[in-house]
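Re: weekly structure request thread

Next one in the queue (153 aa):
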Amino acid sequence: MKTDYVQIEKEYMTSNASVRELAKKYGIPQTTLQRYAKKNGWQSKREERRQKRVERGIVKEEGEQDESWERLKNTMRLVLEDEWNKCQEDEEYRLAVLPSLTRSTKYAREIGVFGPTASERKTIKEVEKMENESQDTGDGLTIQIEGNEEYGV
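Done, posted below.
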């Protein structure tokens, strides 16, 4: 059976597999594959391919901060802060978005965007409690806002 060096080279270029691992996988003597890889410049081709991917932003070099992730987290933080501010200004809006905004804030906290303020933590706990209660009883979600006023959602 003839060895498919093109396929092995492709796998070497697109993975982190070593020549030793590929030789074992394909049942080729390690020294044979090492000589072939060296003769055909696999190592330099792999390094060049990886460098091009880094330059295009497809992968990041080890230790490099992922700026796009930081921008995304910052944008998410700003949007959530704006939404919380709108909730403080507009009661009707607050009633409409509070459950989803609470879940979004909780998720943002989990992924490290920011921690909620004390009042947000209180509201999150209230909504979570109400959601748990509504799941237990099968009733609609009722939100109590400052005082004894209750609003069904």
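The chain has two domains: 5-55, 67-147. Confidence is low (pLDDT under 50) at residues 138-153.
Next request, please.
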